[in-house]
Amino acid sequence: MTGEALDEVVRLLGRLPGLGPRSARRAALHLLKRRDAHLRPLAAALVRVADDVKVCAVCGNLDTSDPCAVCANPVRDRSVLCVVEEVDDLWAMERGGAFKGHYHVLGGTLSAIDGVGPEDLRIPALVRRIEQAPPPSPEVVLALGATVDGQTTAHYIAERLQPLGVAVTRLAHGVPLGGQLTYLDDGTIDAALRARRPFA
Amino acid sequence: MTGEALDEVVRLLGRLPGLGPRSARRAALHLLKRRDAHLRPLAAALVRVADDVKVCAVCGNLDTSDPCAVCANPVRDRSVLCVVEEVDDLWAMERGGAFKGHYHVLGGTLSAIDGVGPEDLRIPALVRRIEQAPPPSPEVVLALGATVDGQTTAHYIAERLQPLGVAVTRLAHGVPLGGQLTYLDDGTIDAALRARRPFA
Prior knowledge:
The structure is a homodimer.
Chain A: H1 4-14, H2 21-33, H3 35-52, E1 54-55, E2 62-63, H4 69-72, E3 80-84, H5 87-96, E4 102-105, H6 123-132, E5 139-142, H7 148-161, E6 168-170, H8 186-194
């Protein structure tokens, strides 16, 4: 392969999650064959987000405005605050469209192995946010991953919020829609069984 | 998800081969978290290749110069011309480093289903190149894929070149290095058996 700029593109694309060296070469070639339809618009959009996208000082979301569109939206419900691990979890909730409240993005989970403590996440900011919220305090929904780190983080946050007397809830565990029992792990089946509901 | 520019980045990344909507969101988030280390360099490199990379008029390779570095290299062997389907095949050959001759990139394979005929590929350019080459004519190595379309294209090119009296060869078929017989298809085993060599 020749051309330093091209090598650089392949190298940088190959460092994206989900792309390796081989698929990065394929992607670079794909872009070069569609210069005006794909390559230039992508380059321009990347330049734009690099300059325009900010971290929302209130919730930690990424947006071109600060506070972000969710925080600035006067129609959204101030009585529920949904705590998520990452910005893409917030995006996933928003795609669903079922949640109308506000968010708080932690920026990760507590992790003893990776040395991530509460101060490395936006947990102190969450506590401050609840303390300073005008009464009544919002309900805090912990929408963290059903992983060891996610649940450790959820327990830690619930403990930190306990003295503030706010209602803390978590997402339900159970059979995902479209899920077949054969393919589910024992833990999920157990959780779904224990949380069984009257058949309406 | 909010912010038009961000949506645009996710949409454009998601159209790359190897990335879907989900991994495009992950890639966009990854880039936004590493703005100076990854996002800005990638945007700059893309802008550079969009402006600088040209198609070599001689062989069809992509490079910042035309003729490309391979064609312009006076050390390379003018007596062998390797015909490949795509630029990434040329890159693969160059990574191996075993081939020291010149290339000719077809830009695809003949395909009745997709309506790709000889005039859509750089086959006429190949014939002209051989005709106009100063004698002796180079050997033409057909390094096309061992697929139906690749082999159809190889046969077609061999027929077109026959009147010119050039030597036409193809890559050997056989067991790939590191390959285990259990995982090989019958066709490959058959080809390897028929092309067996004295054990040295």
